[in-house]
Amino acid sequence: MITRLRITWSTYPSQFWLLFWGQLLITFGASMIWPFLMIYVSEQLDLSLTAVASLMTINAGMTLVSSFIGGPIIDRIGRKWVMVISLAVTGLSFLMMVPANTLLAFAFLMGLRGAFRPLFQVGADAMMADLIAPEQRADAYSLLRMIKNVGVALGPAIGGFIATSSYSSAFFIAAFCLITCSLIMALFTQETLPEPSDSRDIEEHQFGGYGQILKDKLFISFALAFTLTQVCSTLIWVLLGVYAKQNYHILENQFGLIATTNAVLVVALQYPVTQVTKRHETLRVMAVGTLLYAIGVGSITVGSDFWSFWLSMVIMTFGELILIPTATTFTANLAPPDMRGRYMSVYNLTWGVAAGIGPLLGGFLNDAIGPRAIWLGGGLIGLLSVAAFAWLAYRHPQRTLASEVQTSPL
Asked: N or C terminus: fewer CB in 10 A for the chain?
């Protein structure tokens, strides 16, 4: 075991390990808050679920704008300082939520968080692609997912108990973690931005380079299908806590354990699952992962207690294990070196679009039809995503993670 750890340690550069441990601190702090954020806001404001969910739409709208602007910036001036500023401002936004008590205040803070939070992940994903050789990326992204989920395993479990008695303490700890990591990144990371390609200088001025990405039909089709899957994910992560507490009296400390289950499974199983999935056709693998998302979300329709919601989370988690590292590596391998920031921006936009659509749609279904309609609608969206990935797999057979490297039409 010690020999294997030494080999793994020596396989990747030291900056990879800095990102590795930084992700642990970031996800631990942030996950103390985000599973319970909508519960906190709904109790502070006493509004309908649709009104509360609209805050996520503001967050998502700013994420879209930020990611479009951030991608070209990350590809032109570098990854490091965008990541540093993103973490610092996100940490400060958590601090500012403690005294907030009006819809306008929360709208501003959710917009601020939406504008800066995704920039770190876009920069980190691009930096990872700079640092890691194509044949090692699937394993490297799996390792990052594992350590992030160690943080997610600890954050909601601890944050749930703290939030039950003091949300302010949870916000302070989350802010401390993000601001501390911002300082570490500022002091110890090195810029990894590749040398620009002169052949694309003129093209990159058109739509910030996104015009070229729009010509990559496979990638754009993938992003659209992946967005539908992300809608399923946002419904669970944003609305399940509120749904479980309002309808079945499941408190934050109990829901925190459901979120922790997701993380523990990823930590335990992500690497071995990736060793299996990377040997199979990429798009078929993503279709199977998406099917598990659809089943997990749809199954909440018949749930009514802690263990039924726990089982739904387990089903969705197996979908994550199959889908997420595959999708991230797929994006990294299709992106030319000098456009990785923009490809990763579009990839991360799928979450932003889904976060704008999913919670608002779920809130509308809850208020107009009934609480269970949230999950029935989510399940149907998941099945539509499965159909989209199956169609892509039919149109683009025999594509493994290795075969995607530098095959983009760019």
From this structure: N
pTM for this prediction: 0.71
Main-chain dihedrals φ then ψ at residue 357, nearest 5 degrees: -90, -50
- Please give the full DSSP string across 307-352, using - where no structure is assigned: HHHHHHHHHHHHHHHHHHHHHHHHHHHHS-GGGHHHHHHHHHHHHH
For residue 67, how many C-alpha atoms fall within 13 Å in the half-sphere facing its CB? 27
- List the structure tokens of 304: 């009514």
If one counts every other C-beta atom within 10 angstroms of the C-beta of residue 234, the result is: 25
* Residue range 141-195, pLDDT digits in tens: 888 888 888 888 788 878 878 887 888 899 999 999 999 999 999 999 999 988 7
Return the number of other C-beta atoms located less than 10 Å from residue 183's C-beta.
Answer: 12
182: tokens are: 């911002």
Alpha-carbon torsion (6, 7, 9, 13), positive or negative: positive
For residues 45 and 189, the answer to whether their CB atoms sit within 8 Å is: no
